[in-house]
């Protein structure tokens, strides 16, 4: 089992973007309380780094991993590593970042060529982005030629734009209801709980 197989066992990732450090840490805690192990804090600007640090510190107290998102350069990769991120996420596939990363890396893909290149780089998990533009049919079509690849979906994903996560892909994003398929989420098949991301 890979790092991301374990991380996405619940089927949902909370992405905590654009919030101050205190709010970010609070929502990360709420996500973990609800059974969501995967928490990402995007660091598209240096101003977001304190929020990532706050979430990582909160995660360290509870033994939970926190990832750095929107990593598009080697300098951001270095910053994420220094802050203690457990993994990194990128909007696109950059072979330089994949090779340079000391952490598990989840790049974005949107075409079969990118999925094939990711596989050649040794990756088994990638991020379909932007997922709502690609559509659910993209996932059905891509499984045929790439049966060993796993996907998480980001970009406009919510409880209304996703099919049920009983799959080889995990939805990520905002305003999620916890899937009943997650044994640690505490939701029965007839109920759900609001996730921590807003």
From TrEMBL:
InterPro entries: Aldlse_KDPG_KHG (IPR000887), Aldolase_TIM (IPR013785). Transmembrane segments: none annotated. Pathway: Carbohydrate acid metabolism. Keywords: Carbohydrate metabolism, Lyase. Residues 156-198 are annotated as: Disordered. One of its GO terms (molecular function) is 2-dehydro-3-deoxy-phosphogluconate aldolase activity. Homotrimer. Belongs to the KHG/KDPG aldolase family. This is 2-dehydro-3-deoxyphosphogluconate aldolase / 4-hydroxy-2-oxoglutarate aldolase. It comes from Saccharopolyspora erythraea (strain ATCC 11635 / DSM 40517 / JCM 4748 / NBRC 13426 / NCIMB 8594 / NRRL 2338).
């Amino acid at each position: 089992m890979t790092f991301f197989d374990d991380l996405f066992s619940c089927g949902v990732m909370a992405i905590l973007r654009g919030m101050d450090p205190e709010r970010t840490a609070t929502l990360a805690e709420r996500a973990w309380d609800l059974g969501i192990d995967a928490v990402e804090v995007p660091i598209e600007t240096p101003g977001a780094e304190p929020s990532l640090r706050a979430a990582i510190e909160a995660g360290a107290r509870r033994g939970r991993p926190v990832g750095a998102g929107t990593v598009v350069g080697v300098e951001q990769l270095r910053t994420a590593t220094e802050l203690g991120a457990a993994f990194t996420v990128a909007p696109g596939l950059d072979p330089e970042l994949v090779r340079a990363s000391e952490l598990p890396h989840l790049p974005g893909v949107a075409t079969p060529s990118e999925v094939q290149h990711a596989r050649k780089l040794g990756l088994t998990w990638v991020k379909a982005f932007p997922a709502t533009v690609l559509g659910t049919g993209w996932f059905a079509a891509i499984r045929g030629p790439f049966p060993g690849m796993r996907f998480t979906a980001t970009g406009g994903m919510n409880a209304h734009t996703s099919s049920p996560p009983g799959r080889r892909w995990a939805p990520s994003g905002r305003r999620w209801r916890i899937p009943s398929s997650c044994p640690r989420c505490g939701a029965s098949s007839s109920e759900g709980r609001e996730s921590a991301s807003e």
